[in-house]
Amino acid sequence: MSGQPVAMITGAASGIGAATAVCLAERGVRVGIGTFAGDPHDPETTLRDVRDAGGEGRIVEVDVRSTESVDVFAETLVSEWQRLDVAVANAGILRESGFDTITDDQWHDLLDVDLHGVMRTARAGLRHMREGGSVTAISSIAGGVYGWQNHAHYATAKAGVIGLVRSLAVEYGPKGIRANAIIPGLIRTPQSSDAVNSLGPEGLDRAGGYIPWGRVGHSREVAEVIAFLSSPQASYVSGQAIVVDGALTTA
Ligand code: NAD
């Protein structure tokens, strides 16, 4: 097997996923830009940014709630580029709901994307990693280090992601495959902008005032860590959940 490494990234039309596509492209990784049909963001923007960075990308529609869809995503990249080295399980949704009123459907719908979608992405990618590789899943401070009212389903899913990568790190270590999680704090993306809508249009800036550095993070600041974990430079890092939060949870 030869040539540039290949990555699959779910939810790559916007936010952290889009920034990750560009970061990986800058490092010579060919990127599968997973795009979700319901997403208002144009994946062509990510593809253009990838090309501007000197990289190669391929847009593939994927719904992480479907095993078949995620499997086809991985297979499409392998049939185009004959290899798959990196899986970034980034797609996620955020819904607010008090625990006493949450319905079974709401609970299952969120876990289907944020936890089972991560499992499906990791599984689809791992099947094709012939010469080592890396899985990186996106957790959250809500799942790793911080209690968040009215988000029990989200916190449960994001905590599950950490358990998943720890298990994969042990199971796949002998095959030269690493698995890690990222624990972002508050990052400026479409998802976080929606979440703080109740604070008004300047909500994210005001929320940033509670962070020791006085600002929220940028997608790129998370993507850089994902790109490092996906690279050979992280060859002895596995089973970790790395916090990227501007010291929010250490203050
Ligand atoms: P985002 O909304 O820009 O990205 C989420 C992506 O997931 C979108 O591209 C969306 O289309 C995709 N998606 C949603 N449902 C999908 C489905 N069923 N199948 C495939 N794709 C689907 O927001 P983001 O902040 O960049 O989110 C990326 C990840 O980071 C998410 O897992 C999110 O929970 C996590 N995260 C974000 C923050 C933050 O502050 N922004 C903090 C902690 C964790």
Architecture overview:
This protein has 251 residues and is of the alpha/beta class. It has one domain (6-244): Rossmann fold, CATH 3.40.50.720. It is 43% helix and 16% strand. The strands form two sheets. A seven-stranded parallel β-sheet has the order 3-2-1-4-5-6-9, with helices on both faces. Strands 7-8 form a two-stranded parallel sheet. Helix 1 packs parallel to helix 2, helix 1 (15-26) packs across helix 10 and helix 3 packs parallel to helix 5 (116-126). The longest helix is centred in the middle third of the chain and has 21 residues, at 152-172. It is globular, with a radius of gyration of 17 Å. Nicotinamide-adenine-dinucleotide is lined by residues 10-11, 13-17, 36, 39, 62-65, 90-94, 113, 138, 140, 184, 186-187, 189-192. InterPro entries: NAD(P)-bd_dom_sf, Sc_DH/Rdtase_CS, SDR, SDR_fam.
Describe the structure concisely for a colleague:
The protein is α/β, with parallel strands linked by helices. The protein has helices at 15-26, 43-52, 67-81, 104-114, 116-126, 141-144, 152-172, 190-195, 203-208, 219-229, and strands at residues 6-9, 30-35, 57-61, 86-89, 133-138, 177-184, 187-188, 217-218, 241-244.
Note the main attributes of this structure.
251 residues; Rossmann fold; 43% helix; seven-stranded parallel β-sheet; 3-oxoacyl-[acyl-carrier-protein] reductase (NADPH) activity; NAD(P)-bd_dom_sf; Sc_DH/Rdtase_CS; binds nicotinamide-adenine-dinucleotide
